[in-house]
Amino acid sequence: MKTIDLNCDMGESYGHWRMGDDAAIMPLVTSANIAAGFHGGDPATIRNTVRIAVEHGVAVGAHPSLPDLMGFGRRVMKITPQEAYDLVLYQAGAVEAFARAAGARLHHVKCHGAFYNMAVNDAALAEAIVRAVKDLGGGTLLYALSGSRMMALAAAHGVRAIAEVFADRGYEDDGTLAPRDAPGGMIEEAAKSVAQALGMVEQGVVVSRHGSHVAVSADTICLHGDQPGAVVFAKALRQAFADRGLGFAAP
Fold first, then answer.
1. Mean pLDDT across the stretch 67-81?
2. pLDDT value at 1 more than 80
3. In the chain, what is the greatest distance between 2 CA atoms, to the nearest angstrom?
4. Are 159 and 134 in contact (CB under 8 A)?
5. Does domain 2-248 have CATH number 3.40.50.2300?
6. Do the strands 213-215 and 205-207 form a parallel or antiparallel pair, or are they unpaired?
7. SS3 for 137?
């Protein structure tokens, strides 16, 4: 059976503020990108999210962000490559510590929000992120946008990069993610999400919001845990993939 990873951004609650339904979606995914306090998450939330992941055999990943609690990590900030390196190492180290305490290990790193998108177009930031993941050691994987320069930079530095595609986001003609507030930027219907995911996995193509066919390589599919329909989307994806003899497993 051919398998693919299904990842989800999780652990994004903070204090008394709640974001997403991690307990409900965790059994449906194969890897979790856990916030580390800079856009969401706090020590107790990291610990609890790691615990739930371990209980369900879900790979534990760190989800480092720009320091932007107020903006949920979605506002662009001007940072240096050294600051990017430090942000990744600091936040991944926090998640790694909780993973070790739970008897697991840090499986991967996936940057969040604006940080992720900035690195797609900025080679210096991308290389700093790659170096930070390499310096974490332990064979930590890097989840990166399919087709982005970060994939090539990771290979050059001996870091295994996992090509990521998105089931609940619209694409631009150049293969980058459309802004969330743009028409078609967010996919809000499960059937449309399933169709896009299957097209990327089975045909290696995604249709941009302008109608262009863009080539992609899909190693892992992302769902956003903060989207209200995340659980519904995950169940629909699992059913549709099972119907085609496709399964899910972490890389």
1. 97
2. no
3. 47
4. yes
5. no
6. antiparallel
7. coil
Interhelix angle 123-136/113-121, nearest 10 degrees: 120
Calculate the dihedral angle through the C-alpha atoms of 214, 215, 217, 220, rounding to the nearest 10 degrees: 20
Angle at 213 between CA 207 and CA 219, to 5 degrees: 70
Chain segment 201-232, per-residue pLDDT in tens: 999 999 999 999 999 999 999 998 777 788 99
Residue 135, both tokens: 């310096």
The answer to whether 234 and 10 are in contact (CB under 8 A) is: no
Give the bridge partners for 33, in sequence order: 9, 61
Burial of 96-119, coded b for 16+ CB within 10 Å and e otherwise, reads bebbeebebebbbbbbbbbbbbbb
Backbone angles phi, psi at 104, to 5 degrees: -120, -165
SS3 209: coil
Which residues pair with residue 220 across a beta bridge? Answer: 5, 164
Residue 177 near residue 145, CB atoms below 8 Å:
yes
Whether 137 shows a pLDDT value over 90: the answer reads yes
- Three-class secondary structure of residue 72 per DSSP: coil
* pTM value > 0.85: yes
**CA distances, 195 to each of 9, 60, 206 (Å):** 21, 27, 10
Strands (DSSP E) contained in 55-181 are 59-63, 106-109, 141-145, 161-166
Q: How far apart are CA 249 and CA 233, in angstroms?
A: 17
DSSP helix, strand, coil percent of the chain (3-state; round to 5): 40, 20, 40
Report which of 64, 23, 59 is spatially closest to residue 40, judged by C-alpha positions: 64
**Other beta carbons within 10 Å of 68:** 19
